Amino acid sequence: MAVRKLLVAGNWKMNLNHLEGIALVQKIAFTLPDKYFDKVEVAVLPPFTDLRSVQTLVDGDKLKLVYGAQDVSPHESGAYTGDISGSMLAKLGCTYVAIGHSERRDNHYEADAVVNSKVKAAYRHGLTPILCVGEGLEVREAGNQIEHSVSQLLGALEDVTAEQAASIVLAYEPIWAIGTGRVATPADAQEVCGALRAALATKYSAELAEGVRVLYGGSVKAANVAEIVAQADVDGALVGGASLDATEFATLCANTVGILA
Ligand SMILES: O=C[C@H](O)COP(=O)(O)O
């Protein structure tokens, strides 16, 4: 039986300048007891502009949390104005990179092929993708959430080897739950997270699928995280709004495994 270490990742989105980011990371680190980090991996995903500051703080104070980026260019270098390459993120000590978030798929017209190219770019530079999939309300109401999310997963994994996929993190984020306060029920989360794991087993192997961490995201708060993460195929959370407040985020992390902050 694979032992999957829980992961709570805070996606700051387009919030907190580098000074505010330093303050938030310091408060999170000082609020969570060291014993916590033995049970749950805690990551923050700041805006690009904050990464160097977060790196300096984490390295300098030997903090136990890790960090990553919210996107990555599919290109290596060159005339791609505004892009940030995987090599640049690796140089900044990033562990993770979120790829395919619905806010990128929608606002930047990122089709599955683009998401796939970013997944491969992440692996070229030793970054672990947090691959985001999830359906809109109209798909949910039609009952097609599993087909939709599995299709996004398989589109993102085109030409991705088993060796690479073994380390991937998936995040099921129903769009109708993002930023709305309408969190998915534990059963909703389990249904799709379980289907994503089954799809990995079919594409690669049952052993690989058992080892991959599948997160839920969408209005996760300290008050609701425990019942969601208690589901068999949910291995943590990708947290937006609640990650911007140190006390809420630290309590959310602690509640993930029932450790009081
Ligand atoms: O990446 C995080 C998800 O978009 C969830 O955001 P939220 O917790 O604000 O609903």
Automatic annotation (TrEMBL):
EC numbers, comma separated: 5.3.1.1
A Pfam family matched in the record: TIM
Active site: H101 (electrophile), E173 (proton acceptor)
Key words of the record: Cytoplasm, Gluconeogenesis, Glycolysis, Isomerase
Annotated localization: Cytoplasm
GO biological process, one term: glyceraldehyde-3-phosphate biosynthetic process
GO CC field: cytosol
Domain of life: Bacteria
Pathway per the UniProt entry: Carbohydrate degradation; glycolysis; D-glyceraldehyde 3-phosphate from glycerone phosphate: step 1/1; Carbohydrate biosynthesis; gluconeogenesis
The keyword Transmembrane helix is annotated on this UniProt entry: no
Broad enzyme group: isomerase
Assembly and binders: Homodimer.
Annotated function: Involved in the gluconeogenesis. Catalyzes stereospecifically the conversion of dihydroxyacetone phosphate (DHAP) to D-glyceraldehyde-3-phosphate (G3P).
Protein name, entry field: Triosephosphate isomerase
Organism the protein comes from: Nakamurella antarctica
